[in-house]
């Protein structure tokens, strides 16, 4: 096996990093909400905690500042004196009053009086700001938790692809499966061949993408993914593997990227699963073992044989030959 750099890992992660953006990096701030959702969980949690902590400290400081400017901190809160906020003597008590107001706890010990217009204005500002911060951060966390990325982990691809004959035609095949009982609605599969090539004009294309036909004209690319399916690409005169033989496969260098898309039945969100096969992971003259068996009233899928293949007689020549 020749280890080399992959364009897409087996788990679907794309090995592409963007650099030297220059002034274009400001585009991330113009769509700050999406940027925040795309961050890793540890950064999301850090921003979540810092935002609330800073907002709480700033608002508590404003309540303490009002009490300080009015002299409420230095005067006894008796029956003859009406402070802006009752029972606020220092910063901790101002912070507790803000938390009680923001969380609508309402213990009743601290409350705002009607003789404090600046406090009423600050109370309205606090209510509006708290609603905006809650909607932004909680909405971001909810969207990040409901992203269907984890659903893609229960969509399986065979470790290797095979080339053998089916219906008297040489075909490239691989297997896909769904581990969950919930279905993928409108599931569709696509394949891209990534291979370096040089144009007749002398231009070198290091990662040229070519579409592999897996049944666009016949509708075979639309999957009813209830049980494992074998996806088939017929190697014919229009296929990029028209000149591929068993011998030339050893010297070729390419990567087949498989993209499976569908709508998650339980959430209604679009899910995408990806994997790739390099030339070392394409087995010539192999076929997948059956995984379906008929039991008492239902069909059973044996996933222990999902990746298993066996050799079959296959001509070592290309379709062109």
From TrEMBL:
GO cellular component, as recorded: monoatomic ion channel complex; plasma membrane
Segments crossing the lipid bilayer: 45-66, 120-143
Origin superkingdom: Eukaryota
Domain Potassium channel inwardly rectifying transmembrane: 8-148
Subcellular location(s) per record: Membrane
Swiss-Prot/TrEMBL catalytic activity: K(+)(in) = K(+)(out)
Gene Ontology MF annotations: G-protein activated inward rectifier potassium channel activity
Record-marked site positions (Role in the control of polyamine-mediated channel gating and in the blocking by intracellular magnesium): 134
A Gene Ontology BP annotation from the UniProt entry: potassium ion import across plasma membrane
Domain Inward rectifier potassium channel C-terminal span(s) in chain numbering: 155-320
Family matches, as InterPro entries: Ig_E-set, IRK_C, K_chnl_inward-rec_Kir, K_chnl_inward-rec_Kir3.1, K_chnl_inward-rec_Kir_cyto, Kir_TM
Keywords for this protein: Ion channel, Ion transport, Membrane, Potassium, Potassium transport, Transmembrane, Transmembrane helix, Transport, Voltage-gated channel
Bilayer topology annotation: Multi-pass membrane protein
Family affiliation: Belongs to the inward rectifier-type potassium channel (TC 1.A.2.1) family. KCNJ3 subfamily.
Protein name as catalogued: G protein-activated inward rectifier potassium channel 1
């Amino acid at each position: 096996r020749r280890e080399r750099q992959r364009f897409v890992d087996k788990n679907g992660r794309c090995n592409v990093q963007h650099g030297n953006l220059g002034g274009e990096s400001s585009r991330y701030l113009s769509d700050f909400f999406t940027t925040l959702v795309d961050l890793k969980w540890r950064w999301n949690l850090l921003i979540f905690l810092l935002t609330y902590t800073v907002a709480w400290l700033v608002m508590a400081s404003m309540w303490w500042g009002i009490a300080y400017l009015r002299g409420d901190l230095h005067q006894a809160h008796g029956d003859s004196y009406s402070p802006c906020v009752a029972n606020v003597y220092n910063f901790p008590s101002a912070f507790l009053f803000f938390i009680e107001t923001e969380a609508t706890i309402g213990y009743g010990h601290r409350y705002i009086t009607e003789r404090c217009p600046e406090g009423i204005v600050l109370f309205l500002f606090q209510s509006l700001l708290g609603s905006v911060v809650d909607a932004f951060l909680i909405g971001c966390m909810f969207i990040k938790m409901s992203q269907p990325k984890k659903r893609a982990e229960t969509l399986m691809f065979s470790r290797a692809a095979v080339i053998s004959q089916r219906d008297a035609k040489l075909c490239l095949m691989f297997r896909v499966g769904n581990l969950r009982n919930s279905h993928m609605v409108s599931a569709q599969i696509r394949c891209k061949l990534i291979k370096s090539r040089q144009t007749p004009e002398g231009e070198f294309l290091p990662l040229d993408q070519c579409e592999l036909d897996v049944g666009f004209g016949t509708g075979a690319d639309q999957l009813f993914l209830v049980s494992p399916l074998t996806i088939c690409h017929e190697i014919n005169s229009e296929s990029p593997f028209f000149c591929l033989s068993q011998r030339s496969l050893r010297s070729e260098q390419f990567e087949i990227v498989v993209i499976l898309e569908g709508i998650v039945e339980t959430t209604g969100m679009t899910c995408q699963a990806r994997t790739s096969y390099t030339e070392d992971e394409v087995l010539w003259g192999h076929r997948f073992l059956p995984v379906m068996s008929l039991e008492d009233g239902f069909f059973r899928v044996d996933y222990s044989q999902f990746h298993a293949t066996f050799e079959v007689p296959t001509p070592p020549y290309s379709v062109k030959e």
